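Work Package 4 report. The design task specified in the project plan requires that, given a folded chain encoded as structure tokens, an amino acid be chosen for each position. We show below one input record used in the internal validation round.
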């Protein structure tokens, strides 16, 4: 299969943060698939066409283990002139961002879609996030960048195949579609394929159990671009507070990545007055970064909002425990183990997490043990899944599948909590049977397998703390028949409500009048439960 690969931005970028790493790593993995002919392309504003990428793009894309492309006689020519039957385009980038090279400005996605569809070329988009719209409330602003996101997000409803980088990212997009009244669209597919943990060229679990002391120094590290929503300033402030509280500890924090202008003054101040405890490295080569990571006790990634969270995944691949946020999509990655979760908006919680990682050897041993048995996915795995998704999209016989959600009042919405099936307890009757319910991190229940069984409670837990608020709970997965959800606390002595669910788009709503501990959601089968698959349980909290 001939696959056009859109590198308009990364092909002119010498950096390698987030999206650029995805573009380069995925491109390299796709090139290793014998059945795929990968062709680099970009957008030509003058021609209003997708064209074959020229040498400057090929040279820049191969940095950081990126794909290597040969010169072609078609360089700079529109791709429809190729007349390749069944060719498709894969766009792993977010085209609305400004290229580092001013000669190649940002691209409005509708023009790309229009060009491709006019020449019967289908497009698959790797969807990362629309955080300015889904998290930052910028849909009400007149900022040019916000308007670009608005155009981009709505245009995604006309993409043939949208593949989001996490389940949470998919939910943000479908919620946006719901808010905008974008209807179900025939011949469109929407799905999620979680990004892999692999760092190309680095051995899996390479640094597990290594936190070599240097004169009693306890070291941490944090990498990725520094932005307000990524919350690194709060982590630096928490680390500074811990250094002041624990003068008996020799603490060091290594920071890597580009600093956004919105936080550069705060970061510089914290580094300057840290007495050398915070070391900012900027961009460094892989060897130097690896040497520092090897020495570190754990990594830090306590973001407020992400489409995925590559630094967290890469930390686990390297074999390093990570302090991370207790919100999705970080919880999707953390579900496999190796992480200590904290509230990213609670500075005291971050300080406590840092201190535990610094002094609690038993905790570090536990997290390392979880990392040792964790199942990891590679970029090769991911590339093959992407190719399968593109091939399945060839005939576009499916509808765009998403839960149409009503518009929410942003002032009421507070937070989302994602509960993985691995966080739940499975009733022993089902757990120990010949047909185990929990498989590959999901719950699979088929009533035909349990005709003999009289137990109705499938799962319970996860015994977490909830804040005061109104909650909406729903299952992400598949259901035939109906199922009962019951919200309780204190091992069932407090019941907040119960609902019979026959459609997984239904939200089970209940009120928590004060902060509680040991909260659990019981999944209970009824006489009408035929089959149930649980990928995740989502809890949305509202203030009123």
């Amino acid at each position: 299969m001939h696959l056009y690969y859109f590198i308009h931005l990364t092909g002119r970028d010498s950096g390698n943060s987030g999206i650029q790493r995805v573009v380069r790593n995925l491109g390299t993995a796709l090139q290793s698939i014998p059945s795929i002919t990968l062709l680099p392309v970009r957008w030509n504003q003058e021609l209003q066409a997708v064209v074959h990428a020229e040498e400057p793009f090929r040279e820049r894309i191969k940095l950081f283990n990126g794909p290597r492309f040969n010169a072609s006689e078609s360089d700079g020519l529109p791709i429809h002139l190729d007349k390749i039957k069944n060719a498709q385009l894969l766009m792993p980038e977010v085209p609305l961002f400004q290229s580092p090279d001013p000669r190649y400005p940002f691209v409005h996605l509708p023009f790309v879609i229009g060009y491709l569809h006019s020449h019967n070329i289908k497009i698959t988009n790797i969807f990362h996030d629309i955080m300015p719209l889904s998290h930052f409330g910028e849909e009400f602003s007149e900022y040019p960048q916000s308007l670009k996101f608005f155009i981009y997000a709505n245009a995604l409803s006309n993409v043939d195949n949208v593949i989001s980088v996490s389940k949470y990212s998919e939910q943000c997009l479908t919620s946006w579609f719901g808010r905008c009244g974008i209807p179900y669209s025939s011949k469109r597919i929407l799905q999620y394929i979680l990004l892999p943990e692999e760092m190309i060229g680095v051995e899996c679990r390479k640094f597990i159990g290594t936190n070599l002391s240097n004169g009693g120094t306890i070291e941490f590290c944090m990498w990725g671009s520094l932005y307000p929503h990524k919350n690194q300033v709060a982590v630096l402030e928490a680390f500074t507070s811990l250094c002041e509280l624990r003068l008996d500890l020799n603490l060091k924090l290594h920071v890597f990545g580009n600093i956004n202008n919105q936080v550069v003054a705060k970061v510089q101040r914290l580094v300057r007055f840290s007495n050398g405890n915070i070391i900012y490295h900027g961009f460094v080569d892989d060897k130097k970064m690896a040497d520092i990571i090897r020495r570190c006790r754990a990594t830090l990634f306590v973001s407020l909002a992400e489409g995925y969270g590559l630094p967290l995944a890469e930390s686990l691949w390297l074999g390093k425990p990570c302090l991370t946020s207790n919100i999705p999509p970080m919880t999707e990655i953390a579900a496999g183990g190796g992480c200590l979760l904290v509230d990213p908006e609670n500075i005291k919680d971050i300080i406590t997490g840092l201190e535990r990682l610094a002094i609690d050897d038993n905790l570090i041993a536990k997290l390392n043990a979880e990392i040792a048995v964790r199942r990891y996915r590679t970029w090769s795995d991911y590339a093959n899944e992407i190719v399968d998704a593109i091939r399945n999209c060839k005939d576009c016989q499916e509808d765009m599948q998403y839960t149409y959600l009503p518009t929410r009042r942003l002032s009421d919405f507070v937070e989302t909590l994602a509960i993985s099936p691995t966080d739940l307890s499975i009733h022993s009757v089902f757990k120990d049977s010949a047909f185990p319910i929990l498989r590959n991190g999901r719950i699979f229940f088929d009533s035909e397998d349990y005709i003999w069984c009289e137990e109705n409670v499938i799962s319970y837990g996860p015994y977490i703390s909830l804040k005061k608020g109104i909650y909406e709970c729903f299952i992400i997965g598949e259901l035939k028949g109906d199922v009962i959800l019951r919200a309780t606390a204190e091992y069932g002595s407090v019941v907040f409500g119960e609902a019979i669910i026959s459609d997984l788009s239904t939200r089970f709503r209940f009120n928590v009048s004060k902060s509680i501990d040991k909260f659990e959601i019981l999944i209970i089968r009824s006489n009408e439960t035929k089959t149930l698959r649980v990928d995740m349980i989502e809890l949305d909290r509202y203030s009123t």
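Residues 217-373 form a domain with the Rossmann fold fold (CATH 3.40.50.2000). Validation will be extended to a larger panel in the next phase.
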